[in-house]
UniProtKB/TrEMBL annotation:
PANTHER family found in the cross-reference section: 37S RIBOSOMAL PROTEIN S25, MITOCHONDRIAL (PTHR37799), SMALL RIBOSOMAL SUBUNIT PROTEIN MS23 (PTHR37799:SF1)
TM stretches of this protein: none
GO cellular component term of the entry, any: mitochondrial small ribosomal subunit
Similarity comment: Belongs to the mitochondrion-specific ribosomal protein mS23 family.
Keywords of the record: Mitochondrion, Ribonucleoprotein, Ribosomal protein
A Pfam match: MRP-S25
Keyword Transcription regulation set for record: no
Annotated GO MF terms: structural constituent of ribosome
Top-level taxon: Eukaryota
UniProt-recorded name of the protein: Small ribosomal subunit protein mS23
Cell compartment(s), UniProt: Mitochondrion
Amino acid sequence: MATKRIASQVHKQASRLLREGYIQREPAWFRAVLDNPPLPLPARSPPLRTHFDTPSAATPLTPHADSKTVKPLPIKYVEDEVRRQFFRDHPFEAFRHTSLVEGATVQTEHPIRGVEWRRLRQRGRNPSPEDAVRYAVNLYEHHDMDLSSAYASAVAQFRSLRSELQVARSVALAEAEHLGMEFGPSQVDITFAKEQKALRTFQDAAAHDHTAETERKRWKAVVDREGRPDEWTKGQQYTRLWKDGVRPVYAPVLSEPEIKPEGILTPERAAHRISSQADFLNQLHHVPA
């Protein structure tokens, strides 16, 4: 009979059976369960109702609460509010690199805390945003300061320490450069160099494609894309020259001058002599290439 009950009420059922004499001996687990009783039923589980609390037929039943309306209370910590306000005032602090990897052991709490922690500088000259948040909470909890005043004090000390660190770094850099120290490229310069290298690969690829296209079109016309193409007159320029008596020169261009009895025959003079004849088209075969 006891096994049919809910698990958290088995010991109660066993106690009633022992009292009525249905069980002669206590189970071996009975005393242990009484010393360490199980957890009570969940909060959503309605408790058992007695007969006088049971609604009668004349009383209208109230609807049960919807599970969507039963929500846990929000959990709020002071650190979350201070941290949220801190990053609203200092958004660029979120871009500073931090390590989220723990070592072999979890880092222990700093020895300076509680009432002893009176200044933010006690934990170092380069505090992190988390140090400023914890310091504000520490002032609020251990130094009897309201949260607004604690936050204002923490932020003021945080900015002061960051300013001192920035000035110290600038002075150290100026001294090193004055003594002849040469620093390598910064991370920004390295990134720009990588970008320029990637852009040059696109230019080299375009030049290689143009060369390959030229080689494929060796016996075809290749348009020079760099210069401005000549304007097309739709034959008007040819017609005007034809009416003026200018004959076109179709003679091949000679690579070397020839020696004739009348003198040295240059490629220009040979082309002019051939074009001036009426039957120059028939003499193309007699002109040496």
